[in-house]
Amino acid sequence: MRKKYWQFIFGFSASVLPLPSAEIDISKLPPVSAAAPDFARDIYPIFKENCISCHGPEKQKGKYRIDTREGAFKAGSEGSNIIPGHSEKSPLIHMVAGLIEDGLMPPPKADPLTKEQIGQLRAWIDAGAIWPEGPIPEFVRKVDFKKQIEPIFEKSCFECHGPTKQAGSFRLDQKADALKGGKSYGKVIQPGNAAKSSFLIIVSGKDEDLPLPEKHKLPPKEVELVKKWIEQGAEWP
Ligand code: HEC
Ligand code: HEC
């Protein structure tokens, strides 16, 4: 980012140089979310899913890590990245909101954080950025079938396994049929047991006996989500 230039010229950490605030238009920040976020449930999972691959135990891009409390609050090239009580002044928020030129986090190839996620991070920082001592309890977010899984099936599978057509007598738009399976593969979804669910092999594009392999292949992110849903019991409300 821009600070590199100063580091180059003066050879000291740029953290002593305040950001020219005129450059950052905080009116463009997504609003602070109204609900008070819980660190383990709402905040840490955002870091875990979007940041830790580059700012965690393996890589510390920009010498920054956000998997530990010490790392997250350590001053970096923009000064302190998190300023408790002031999300609007926190460089981390400016970065995730894309307000710093060439400083969007995560970088452009990854999916940006949503306005809601930024709103939650802001609410957490405004409330003092509390990061409890000790290990962070793992919070497993329940996959929402209606919101996250059904749309995948609808977009990629209903054409041949839906209301009008049931290739291989497999129908994926109704719970009972979907859990029963098709004519040659039988039960492909084993709720609670991803390892035994051949459904996952099929949608990973690894089943070489199935016709139309490209039609059966889902993007890795969607396969992960379907896997999580099956592991959590393949609930189908
Ligand atoms: C694909 C890798 C990648 C991901 C994912 C990523 N970053 Fe970064 N981040 C970088 C790189 C590279 C830099 C260093 C940029 C530079 O110095 O020009 C950086 C720098 C930063 C810095 C500045 C560190 C400092 O003090 O100089 C912060 C803060 C930061 N990232 C936060 C985040 C957050 C928060 C997320 C998740 C929402 C995230 N990053 C996701 C690659 C990544
Ligand atoms: C363009 C059509 C098409 C699309 C789209 C499609 N399939 Fe298929 N599917 C087939 C055909 C054809 C067969 C093989 C039927 C047979 O053997 O008679 C099949 C077979 C299957 C079977 C095995 C059924 C059995 O015989 O037991 C499963 C499971 C399956 N598909 C799942 C999916 C899933 C999940 C998706 C979405 C990611 C999907 N399919 C998308 C055409 C399609």
Question: Your description of this structure?
Answer:
The chain folds into two domains: 118 residues, Orthogonal Bundle (Cytochrome Bc1 Complex, Chain D, domain 2); 87 residues. The radius of gyration is 23 Å and the shape is elongated. With 237 residues, it is mostly helical. The site of one heme C (HEC) has 23 residues, from helix 7, helix 9 and helix 10.
Placed side by side, the strands forming the largest sheet appear as 1-2
- Could you tell me the number of beta strands? 2
Hey, roughly how much beta strand do the residues contain?
Answer: under 5%
- Oligomeric state: single chain
Shape descriptor? elongated
Encode the helix/strand succession as letters: HHHEEHHHHHHHH
Largest β sheet strand count, sense and barrel closure = 2 strands, antiparallel
Report the top-level CATH class of the largest domain: Mainly Alpha
Rounded to an integer in angstroms, the radius of gyration calculated over CA atoms is 23 Å
Span from first to last CA?
47 Å
The helix content, as a percent range, equals 25-40%
Query: Helices and strands: which structural class?
Result: mainly alpha
| Small molecules bound in the structure, each named once | heme C
Low-pLDDT regions: 2-18
Averaged pLDDT, please? 90
Tally of distinct domains: 2
Count the DSSP helices.
11
CATH architecture of the largest domain: Orthogonal Bundle
